[in-house]
């Protein structure tokens, strides 16, 4: 049984996908996709031996060796330029996913879709997409076992087309599609963020010489959250 989080990631792959799943761990995602779509093919990349072995076992268990190639290596280093059409990187921190994309930029020439699921700091990925001419085409947010996960889907295109000019900073932080959809999980996340910010601001105000710039930024972000929650 695939987690709801990974099932949602899988939903963003087209029929007949030929994708890389970087940091595949047990290769649950590529196995699920290939079992449900006879045309799909994948490269499952893993940097660590343990998860690499687990991925190999899972792929063999389903007899998918001819369609899922499990490779040991760092980030997008496991694929050749032009080899794959989609990239999935899920279940890691935003900055690590960003570093993997940055380090493997030369592998993305034929890639028509990138699906990322950062556990924290989705903003670092929205920024990276913006700076590298990718536009967001969708986002979703899901609550599972007490955690809230964001999924971002990007394609090559005018990077500013998914943002409103006046509130770009706010959207880059909270997500233009997530702000629009305003689902229960998103509201929940905003409430949690607001509480965190309130605590930070309180602590900062107590300090003898608080960083005024940072304080202002936190206060601005609290206002954005209040706009969502009102
Ligand atoms: N993608 C799966 C998911 O979403 O459930 C597994 C997530 S797991 C928490 C993160 C995996 O990424 C680990 O198995 C880890 O070994 C792998 N990983 C971390 N850094 C990596 C890198 N630079 N290249 C490839 N794999 C990496």
From TrEMBL:
Any GO MF annotation of the entry: tRNA (adenine(22)-N1)-methyltransferase activity
GO annotation (BP), single: methylation
Top-rank taxon: Bacteria
InterPro entries on file: SAM-dependent_MTases_sf, TrmK
UniProt signal peptide: none
Keywords of the record: Methyltransferase, Transferase
Pfam family of the protein (one): TrmK
Protein known as: tRNA (Adenine22-N1)-methyltransferase
């Amino acid at each position: 049984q695939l987690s709801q989080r990974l099932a949602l990631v899988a939903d963003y792959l087209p029929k007949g996908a030929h994708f890389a799943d970087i940091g595949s761990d047990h290769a649950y995602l590529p196995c699920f996709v290939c079992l449900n779509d006879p045309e799909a093919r994948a490269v499952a990349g893993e940097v660590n031996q343990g998860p690499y072995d687990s991925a190999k076992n899972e792929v063999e268990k389903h007899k998918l060796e001819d369609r899922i190639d499990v490779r040991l290596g760092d980030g997008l280093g496991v694929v050749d330029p032009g080899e794959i059409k989609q990239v999935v990187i899920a279940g890691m921190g935003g900055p690590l996913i960003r570093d993997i994309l940055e380090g493997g930029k030369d592998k993305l020439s034929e890639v028509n879709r990138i699906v990322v699921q950062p556990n924290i700091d989705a903003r670092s990925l929205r920024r990276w997409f913006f700076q590298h001419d990718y536009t967001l085409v969708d986002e979703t947010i899901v609550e599972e076992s007490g955690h809230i996960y964001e999924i971002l889907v990007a394609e090559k295109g005018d990077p500013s087309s998914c943002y409103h000019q006046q509130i770009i900073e706010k959207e880059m932080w909270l997500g233009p599609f997530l702000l629009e959809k305003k689902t229960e999980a998103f509201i929940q996340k905003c409430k949690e963020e607001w509480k965190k910010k309130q605590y930070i601001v309180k602590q900062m105000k107590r300090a003898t010489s608080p960083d005024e710039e940072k304080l202002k930024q936190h206060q601005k972000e609290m206002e954005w959250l209040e706009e969502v929650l009102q």
